[in-house]
Amino acid sequence: MISLQTYLIISALVFIFGLIAVVNKKNAVGILMGVELILNSVNLNFIAFAKYVDLSIKGQIIAIFVIILAAAEAAVALAIVLNIYRYRSTIDVTTVDLMKN
Amino acid sequence: MGFLTLITFIPVVGMIIVLLLPKKNLNAIRWVSAAATFIPFVLASYLWTQFNYNLGGINNESTFQFVEHARWIPAFGIEYFMGADGLSFPMIWLTTLLSFICIFASWNIDKAQKGYFALFLLLETGMIGVFGALDFFLFYVFWEVMLLPMYFLIGIWGGPRREYAAIKFFLYTLFGSVLMLLAMLALYFNTTDPVTGAHTFNMLHMMDQSNHSDWLKILDVRYLIYIALFIGFAIKIPMFPFHTWLPDAHVEAPTAISVILAGILLKMGTYGILRISYPILPDIAASTSWYMAVFGMINILYGAFVAMAQKDFKKMVAYSSISHMGFVLLGMSVFTSAGIIGAVFQMFSHGTITAMLFLMVGVIYDRAHHRDIEGFGGLGLKMPVYTGISSVALFAALGLPGMSGFVAEIMVFIGAFPVYRTITIISAIGIIITAAYILWTLQRVFLGKLNPKYENIPEINGREIFTMAPLAVMTILFGIWPIPILNLMKTSLNYLIQIIP
Amino acid sequence: MVEIAVIIALLPLLAFVIQIFFGKRLPRQGDWVSIGAIVSGFGLSLYLFIQMLTRYDPGFVITESFTWIDLGSFKINLGIYLDNVSITMLMVVTIVSSLVHIYSMAYMEGDPRYSRFYAYLSLFSFSMLGLIIWDNLFGIYMMWELVGLCSYLLIGFWFEKDSASNAAKKAFITNRIGDFGFLFGLLIVVTAIGSFTLTDIAEGVASGKLSGGWLTAAGILLFCGAIGKSAQFPLHVWLPDAMEGPTPVSALIHAATMVAAGVYLVARLFFMLSLDAMIFISYIGAFTAIFASIIAVTQNDIKRVLAYSTVSQLGYMIMALGAGSFTAGFFHLVTHAMFKAGLFLGSGSVIHAMHHAMHKLDVHDDPNDIRLMGGFKDKMPTTYRTFLIYTLALSGIPFFSGFLSKDAILGGTLAFAVSQSNPIHYLLPVFGFAAAILTAFYMFRLVILTFHGEPQRKDLYENIHESPKTITIPLSILAVLSIFIFYTLPGINPFSAAHGWFEHLMAAPASAVAQFSGHPVVDISEHTAHSSHTLAMIISIIVALSGILTAFAIYYWKKMDVEALTEKMGVLYRLSYNKFYVDEIYEATVVRGLLMWNNLLSWFDNAIIDGLVNLTAWITRHTSALSGKFDNAVIDGMVNEIADITQGFGRQLRRVQTGQIQTYIFAAVVGAVVIILVRLV
Predict the structure, then answer these.
(1) B191 and B77 in contact (C-beta within 8 Å)?
(2) Chains B and A touch (3+ CB pairs under 8 A)
C-alpha cells in the first residue's frame, strides 16, 4: 500500500519542477509546460486526498475541472504566444517587457 | 405707489429703456434720459407745492411727509421706508434739478453714450434714494448703489488719469462705507422695535433712546459708534484730512459728473451727519461739536489757501468746494438756529454755485482742451456772454451779497460767533482768501490781453447757456429772497436743535 | 416818503437790468435809460430835500421795516431809515451821479463797451443809494460789498490793460480786508444785541447790553470797514491805483461818493462810539491826512495827485468825526464831494483833450502826465476857470465851500484838544494844519503846471481844444455848487456856516454810550468851541495862503529851483515820490508771504496728505504682493513638496515593475515562502 506521504512528496516534487520551469525558462512554451506541471501536481494531491481522506468523490470532480481548465488555459496561452511570435518573431519572454515600469 | 418712490425709480425705468435702445440711436438715448430726469424734477417741484412747512420730521414719523412703508425683508427688520422732511426735501429737489441739467451738460459725451446715460440714471436713483431713505439698511443700499455707477463714470469717461482717480475714489468711499456698516450693525443689534420687540433698521426707532439696549448706553460705545459714522460721512464731505480723493476725482471726471460729485455727493456727508449721527447720538454730537468746528475752520482756510496755489482750473474749483463745505461743518457744529439753517442753506446754495463753476470749466475745456489757468487770458473780449455768466458764478462763490452763498455764509457766521468766537473769526479770514483766489483766477482767465491762441474761440452756445442760466438765476433769486428755501428747512432744523441736549 | 426813497434807489437797478440784457440793441446803446433813471432819482431827491428844508426840523427821522429772514429764534429785519443826513446824502449822490452820467456821454463816446459802462454806473448808483437808506448794518454791509463790486467792475473796465485788471483786483481785495473787520464788528454787535437795526443797536448800547471793551472793539472793527472803503492808512493803497478806471468813474466813485461811504458809516455809527474808539478813529484820520498829502506833493500824474488829495481829505473827515465834530465831518463830506468830483471831471477834460491831441499826432505818451502840459488856460478857458474854483475851495480859501467845512473841522479838533486833559491830543489840530498847508501847495502846483506857464510840449499844445458842452456844463454846475452861499443860507456870512441850514439840520445824534451820558459825544463848552473856532479860522487862512504863495514862488515865479529843492529834500523826496514804499512793503511781505504759504500748503497737500494716502495704498499693495509670495512659496510649496515626495517614491517603486512575469512570480513565491516560514516559526 502506498502511503499518502509518497503521493504528497511526488506531488511536491512535480510542483517544484513546474515552478522552476515557470521561473527559469526563457521559452514561453516551456513556461506553459511548467504551468501544466504545477496544475497536474495539484491534481495528484486532490486525487490522493480523495482516496485517503474523507473527501470521496469531490476530489476527483475537482481534478477533472482542473484538467478541463488547464486545456482551456493552454489553448488561450498558446494563442497569445502565437500572436507574440507573429509580431516579434520570438517567444523569448525576457524580451517581452511592455509592462515594464 | 407714492410720489417719493416714483421720483426715486423713474430714472431706473429710464435706464432700462436706454439699455433697450439701439446703440446708434444717440438722440433717442439722450432724450429718453432727459425725460427720465425731467419727470422726477417736475414731480419734486409739485411736491414742493404740497409741502407742509409746519411739520418737523427728524425723529417723529407722524411729522414726516410723503411717507411710504413697504415690507422688504421682515425677518431682519428691514423695511422699504421713505419720507421727506425739511432737511431732506431741499436736497431731493436739488438732486432732481442738477441731474436734469447734467443730462444736457453730457450732450457731447463722445464714447459709449448708451452705457454713460444708463449709469447716470442709476446714479440719480441712488442719490435720491439716499436722501429719501428712513431705514438705515435702505439708506446703506442706496449709498452703495450710488457708488458703483460713479466708479465707472469716472473710470471710463474720465480724463487721462481716470483709472487712478476712480480707484482712489472707490476705495476711499468704500473705507467710509465699511465703518458706516459696522456702526449700522452695532446700532441694529442694540435697537429694538417698540412694537414687535425685534431688532430694527428703522432710523426713527434708533433715534428713540428708550429703544436702545444697555450696551448702547455705555458712553465709550456711543463715542465709538459716533466716530465710526462720522469718519464714514467725513470722507464724503470731504473733511480735512480725508479730502485728497476729491481733487483727483474732479479733475478726471467728465464735466457733468464733477457737477454731480460736488453738487450732490459732497452734501451726503453732511446730510448723513444731520440725519443719522445727530438724532441717534445727540449727547455725543453735543460733546464733540468743538472738534467739528475746528475741522470746519481748517477746511475753510486750508481749502482756500490750497485753491489759490492751483494752476489747474478744475482743481481750483475742487479745492474751493472743500473750503465751502467747511462753512457747512462750522454751521452744523453750533446748534443755533442761524448756524444750522445757514449750514443746510449753504449745502443747497453751494450745490448750485459749484455746479455752475464746474459747468463753466467744462465750457472752456470743450473749446481749449486744457484747463491751465495761466494758459488763457482776455477771454472777456471774445466771449462776453460766457464771461458774464462765469462772473456770476465766481462772484457767488466769493460770497457777494445778493447771491445765495452770502446769505448762507453770513448766517453761519452769525450762528457760530456766539458759541465759538475765536474759531469763527479765524474762519472769517477765509472770505479774504476766497476773494483773492477767485479774483486772481477771474483776472488770469478773463481779463488782460487776449491770448492770440484764442482769437477764434467760439462763444458759449445755447445748450451751455441753458445749463448755467437757471442756476445763475436761482443763485441771485435765493440771494435776495432766500425765504422759500429757509421756510422749507426751518421747522425741521429748529426741531433738530431741540433734540441736542 | 419812504416809498420815494426806495424808488430813488430802485430806478438805477431797473436801468442796470435793462442795460445788461438789451443795452446794445437800444438806440444810442441805451445811455438815456441810465441817465433817465438817475436824473429822475435826482428829481425825487430834490423833492425830499426841499421838504426837509421847509420842515427845518433837526430831529426828523422816519423808519419803516419788514422781516427779511425769520427763523423763529433768529430774525433779520431790513428797513429804510430817512433822516436829514440820509436825505442830504441822497441829494449829493444823485447830483454827482447825474452829472457824471451826462459827462460820460462825451467822455466814453465810441468805447466798444459803451452800454456796459452805463450798466455798471447804474448798478453803482443803486448800491450807493441803497447803502444810504438802509436802517440796519446788515443791509449796509450788503450794499457795502456791492459798491465794492461796482468799483471792481469800473476800475477794471478797460480790463485788457493789465494795470487796470490788477488795480481792480487790488481794490476789491483790500476792501475785503477792511470788510473782514466790518464783519467781525457786525458779529459782536448782533451777538450782544440780537439785531442789526440802528435804532435797536442804540437802545442796546444805552441799556448796557454792549459796553466796555466789547463796545470799543465793535466800534473800531466796524470802522475797519471804513478804513478799507475810505482808503485810510494802512489800506489806502488801492485808491491811487483805482485811477486806472475811466475818469468819470474816478470822479463819481473814487472821489465823491463811494469812498465817502466809509465816512458815512462812521457818521451813522456815531452814537455807539466810545471815547477810545473815537480817539483811535481820529488818529487814523489825522495820520492819513498828513501822510497822503505828503505823497501828493511829488506826484506827476494829474489823477494821482487828486487821488492822494482825496485820501488826505477823507482823513480829514474821519479825523473830525473821531474828534466828535459830527457836523463838521459830514459837512466836509458834502462840500468835498462837489469840488472833488469837479476836480476829477476837470482833469478828465484835460486828459480827454490830451488824448485827442496825442491821437491826432500819433504820439504815445502818458496823457495824464503834468510834465507834458502847461499853459492850457488859454486853450481851455471853461475848464481852467472851474478848475481854479475847485482848487480854491479845496485849499480852504474864504468865499468857497471848502473853507467853511475845513474851518469847522480844524476848529472842532482844536476844541477837542482843549477839552481833553491829555495835551498829546494837540497833535490832531497840528496834523490838520500841516495837511492844510500841503493841500494848498500841491493843488496850486497842479494848477500852475497844468494851466499856467510855458507849454512843455508845443506840438500837443497846438492841438488842445476845449471839451464839448456835455463836459463843460457839469463842470460849471459843480463850480457853482462850490460857492459858500449854498451852505450858509439863510445866513450870508462867508466866514461861518454856523447859522446856515446845514449846521442846523445836521445836528450830531445823541450818543448812546454811557460814558457820554446823552451828550453829543465830547462835552465841549460853548466858550471853548467859539474861541477855538475863531483861532482855527485865522490860522487856517494864514496856512492856506502860505501854501499857495509857496507854490507860486516855486513854480510860477521860479524863485527857487525845483531841481535844487528836490536835491535838498533828498530822502524825504524819495519817500514821498515812492509813496513811502507801502506798496512795495506789502508786495514783499503780505503778497509774497501769502503766495509762499499757499504753495507750501499745496505742496503739503500733494506730498504729505496725498502722500500718506498713496503710501497706504503702496503698503497695501506691497503687503499683498508679499503675502502673494508667501502663498506661492510656503503654502503652495508644502503642497508641491508632498507631491514631489510621492512622486519620488513612485519613481523608486517603478523599478520593481520589471515587466517580467517571471520576476513577479518569483517574488510571489518568495513572499509565500516567507509567510509560511513566519507562520511556522
Answers:
(1) no
(2) no
